[in-house]
Amino acid sequence: MSLELVIFDCDGVLVDSESISNGILARLLTAAGLPTTPMEARSKYQGLRLAEVVLQAEATLGRSLPEDFLEQFERERAVAFRRELRAVPGAAEAVRRVSAGGLAVCVASQGKLSKTQLTLGLTGLRDLFPANALFSAESVLRGKPEPDLFLHAARLMGAEPTRCVVVEDTCSGVTAAVSAGMRVLGYAADGDEEALRRAGAESLNSLDELPGLLALG
Predict the structure, then answer these.
(1) Looking at the structure, do residues 140 and 166 belong to the same domain, yes or no?
(2) pLDDT tier at 34 (50, 70, 90 boundaries)?
(3) Is the whole model's pTM more than 0.90, yes or no?
(4) Which of 67, 84, 101 marks a domain boundary?
(5) Are residues 93 and 161 in the same domain?
(6) 18, 33, 130, 191, 210 from 197: Cα distances, Å
(7) How many angstroms separate the Cα of 131 from the Cα of each of 18, 20, 153, 211?
(8) β-sheet bridge partners, residue 5
(9) Which of 13, 153, 176, 217 could form a disulfide with 108 if both were Cys (CB 3.0 to 4.6 A apart)?
């Protein structure tokens, strides 16, 4: 069956934001009384919506985080993004080649739409996607690992789920794509390739490999 749409996750797939976000999250959690390293922040909270991060952290801490915790996190993260954020190597060329191959492209992220717009804009990737091709888990009832976000994106992009390919770097994202009936490529440049495979992904070690895996030449 011919492909119609490639759905890209944003953080860790298109923009190299994970180390920045996890560093800030770990520092703020530690300051709030929950000692956390950046590696622990990634392993415990990667792929969760921010509200879910807060709930999980508070359950571990045994009390509420500061009232302005999320506001401070988002403010400091935005400052750091403007200073440090870069595109994932090969991201721009991969998206261009997919589009040139006749496939539609979109972005589906757990994060807020405003965050996706910010990070894609800062890294020069925003113009590679149509104006109506950015999607957030905030627009659906259930985020990843449920299939809602990917099905939502496919529906609005006019594509059949079985004709979609998802590029993901988290097990929750892979699980969501598999549940949506979509082929999924697990980008594991700095993650757990075996865990992504166990979740149902094909391996993608470099975005340079993407056109070939989609038989675009």
Answers:
(1) yes
(2) very high
(3) yes
(4) 84
(5) yes
(6) 20, 35, 30, 11, 16
(7) 25, 26, 13, 23
(8) 104, 164
(9) 153
